[in-house]
Amino acid sequence: xxxTLTEKILRQHLADGSYETGKEIGIKIDQTLTQDAxxxxxxxxLESMALDEIATELSVSYVDHNTxxxxxxxxDDHAYLESIAKKYGIYFSRPGNGxxxxxxxxRFARPGKTLLGSDSHTPTAGGVGSIAIGAGGLxxxxxxxxxxxxxxxxxxxxxxxxGRLQPWATAKDIILKVLSILSTKGNVGCVCxxxxxxxxSLTVPERATITNMGAETGVTTSIFPSDKxxxxxxxxxxxxxxxxxxxxxxxAVYDQTIDIDLSEIEPLASAxxxxxxxxxxxxxxxxxxxxxxxxxxxxxYVDLMTVAAMLKGKHLPPGVSLGIxxxxxxxxxxxxxxxxxxxxxxxxxxxxxxxCGFCIGNSMSPCTESVSVRTSNxxxxxxxxxxxxxxxxxxxxxxxxxxLTGKITDPRELGMDYPRIEMPEHFEIDDxxxxxxxxxxxxxxxxxxxxxxxxxxxxxxxxPEEIIGQVTIRVGDQVTTDHIMPAGSRLKYRSNVPKYSxxxxxxxxxxxxxxxSALRDRGVHNIIVAGYSxxxxxSREHAALCPMYLGVKAIIAKSIERIHAANxxxxxxxxxxxxxxxxxxxxxDKTEVKIPGIRExxxxxxxxxxxxxxxxxxxxxxxxxxxxxxxxxAGGLLPFTVMAAARKGE
Length: 650
Ligand code: MIC
Ligand code: SF4
Description:
Blueprint: H1 5-12, E1 14-16, E2 24-27, E3 31-35, H2 36-48, E4 58-62, H3 73-88, E5 91-93, H4 100-107, E6 114-117, E7 131-134, H5 137-144, E8 149-152, E9 155-162, H6 171-182, E10 190-195, H7 204-213, E11 221-223, H8 228-236, E12 256-261, E13 268-270, E14 278-280, E15 290-293, H9 301-311, E16 321-324, H10 329-337, H11 340-347, E17 350-351, E18 371-374, E19 390-393, H12 396-405, E20 434-435, H13 440-443, E21 467-474, H14 481-484, H15 497-500, H16 512-521, E22 525-530, H17 542-549, E23 552-557, H18 562-570, E24 574-578, E25 592-595, H19 598-603, E26 608-613, E27 616-621, H20 626-634, H21 637-649
Helix pairs in contact: 2-3, 2-5, 6-7, 9-11, 9-12, 17-18, 20-21
This protein binds alpha-methylisocitric acid (MIC) and iron/sulfur cluster.
Residues 37-38, 65, 119-121, 134, 360, 487, 537-540 line the site of alpha-methylisocitric acid.
């Protein structure tokens, strides 16, 4: 029996365990990436591991999320990150150079490699045939130190593409179609592998749009084989020598197959407030207040050139605003040199920095009760900064058509010829905004730059014998990391955990933080009760770290998403699931809950434990590997890693 591409690359990188679907394996990580919003914590944790050198082939620190710099906090973070990169031999992509995933695809991602990134859209690099996985910053720090990354050997879904896209249907519509089939839940522990003759017509940036937004299905990653298109892309990026072909074996066996005929794909959108609520553009008839084009999903050269060709010589209608954020300095500079930037400016577009910006809600929030059409990948309620706004996620051509007419518009109705823009044979290459690692001798001299915004990461104590606490909050289904730990205007506190913790659950319950810290100070453990898919979305470990700081010891949910569940374990919080889902109803806010003998249960490898709430008994399940149990007993991955290193040294 042959191997899928996923299994092939994972087996080549196997560092711990034996490969069996559904079982935990440890893999060697070749490359890492961090971004500033998750990176400061990752590097503070790296520092506390007291290493001299990083062990990866390549690690890159990007600054792309918090580039607004209102006040000193963001700038302090940037200075810290730059000094850390100099000290440890890490590439540093300076603010202004672009969004981590776009730049990594352009300049560093390689077929057959493993990439671990402290951002959930790291799978973008799956577009060149890399196994690229999003994780919490602490996992990335451990991988930089040479530690294995642990994941479940995945179930592999074969997404077989046949045919060719029709004009005005795009890669974004393919991933929206996949989302309409897979939805945003129930795919934990899977990988989407794209095959079929239809893939040969998709360029690497198009493939990257698909693997990027694959994150919204909850899969571990998505991947395309490395073929002629990959070679063409690496050639155009001046990296041809890094190309080699890699694909699944002909007799590879998949756990599930989905067939999609590209010629039947039509323009689609994610309707408010979930990327998985898919509708056809032609069924929508809605005036638009704002159009935002950019983000790591859709801001490539071809994306923006196509938009510019559609808008050239025309003007923005009154009542609509248009913002465009190119994905990288390479993209921005290319459209500047060939004059297309001027076409966008003449149309009335507001040109934004090559960064995340609007996508994470730190700028360009739409007005109250407005409709915003965006080319990004997430439309969770309030993520734009305006809770009452309705955000539709679409392709760049639908966004441009909507900016032209002032209402959500199917571009096929414009009566315009489809501007078929080719990917260039040679991209403009200028890496002068990426600072390469310093020679080892000079590195030692480097001083770390620590402004007042850089705090120490709090560390948890060992797991107590029993949990004696209270349900501090009970939430429903699909609570995202944006609900647990909001970004937007709160982002600047990412390096200051006590301050950032004041905003835990802010969008759902403004008093949560005060209540939880009061209980913690009285020695009462905080417990969170949740519905399905708790912790969807971002890889931000602050959604575990800050609750840990507030004294949360356990989450009891109907289900928990992959990255978030791993982050909870990493910070010593137990992710429980209900044995009977209907028990969710029996645990409202303020219920006093006891979980006796939890330490012993973890030590003895038990999967079932009982929670006591008054005279009720509630069955709980723990789906944890032995390694995760040991991490929880130690109080988290950091104390576990430090203890393991000390044992080795004895
Ligand atoms: C996101 O798109 O939600 C983010 C902001 O990029 C996050 C990372 C973060 O919260 O810093 C992600 O996707 O992991
Ligand atoms: Fe940045 Fe948005 Fe991409 Fe997250 S999804 S990395 S905020 S552009």
